[in-house]
Design goal:
This protein is α/β, with parallel strands linked by helices and about 230 residues long. The chain is about 50% helix and about 15% strand.
Length: about 230
């Protein structure tokens, strides 16, 4: 009897998995349709827990405004903290302000600086990450936690393996990211797990002007287009 119940439960799970495909497909279709119209944008990542009086919040807001002034829009994860700062800076500068929101059990709520027609909601992290990678002309990665690291290393991996076109990946905050870069050099490279040239994919900066210089120099050489 117990075995029959287990089989029944397993079959229900498999059926639910099949129907989930349509929900996943819907998120992809909605994302592609809306984001294909936004024009060139730069994604800003960072902690949802960063408060408005923190230096990195203020720097993210300043940087987003400069990004807009140089002809790009801004994409964030749509939540509080660094994400809010990025959308706020873009909004104040009168530029495109996109939020790719996701429903989380804590710390995530839509910030008020996203353009009304450019706020998208996702249930699936992997669909959301596809949107970031496909429609961003660059990643600026502010100090953050596991989610920020996830987005950073996914982008590096996709470029390293030639699954997408190269675009600038900028780590903002030498004090915060310097230890990670040193570990990559002393451990990953020394162990032969990556090659030294893989570090060429990453820029480490400490000022908003450096971010703009890297973006502008890169796109003097390469065209602006979706990444895959």
């Amino acid at each position: 009897m117990r075995k029959e119940q287990n089989h029944k439960g397993w079959n229900e799970i498999k059926t639910n998995d099949s129907w989930a495909i349509f929900k996943i497909m819907g998120e992809f279709v909605n994302g592609y349709e809306k984001l294909s119209k936004i024009g060139p944008c730069v994604s800003i990542f960072g902690s949802a827990r960063t408060k408005p009086d923190h230096k990195y919040y203020k720097l993210a807001e300043e940087m987003a405004s400069k990004i807009v002034e140089h002809g790009y829009g801004v994409i964030t994860g749509g939540g509080p903290g660094i994400m809010e700062a990025g959308n706020k800076g873009a909004h104040i500068a009168g530029g495109t302000s996109v939020g790719l929101n996701i429903d989380l059990p804590f710390e995530q709520h839509n910030n008020p600086y996203i353009d009304n027609d450019k706020s998208l909601d996702f249930d699936y992290f992997f669909v959301r990450k596809v949107m970031f990678v496909k429609y961003s002309q660059g990643f600026v990665v502010m100090p953050g936690g596991f989610g920020t690291l996830d987005e950073l290393f996914e982008a590096i991996t996709l470029i390293q393996t030639n699954k997408i076109e190269k675009f600038p990946i900028i780590l903002f905050g030498v004090e915060f990211w310097g230890g990670l870069i040193e570990w990559v050099k002393s451990t990953l490279i020394n162990e032969g797990n990556i090659s030294a040239k893989d570090l060429d994919l990453i820029h480490l900066v400490d000022t908003t002007d450096e971010v703009i210089t890297i973006l502008d120099q890169f796109y003097k050489e390469y065209g602006l287009s979706p990444n895959f």
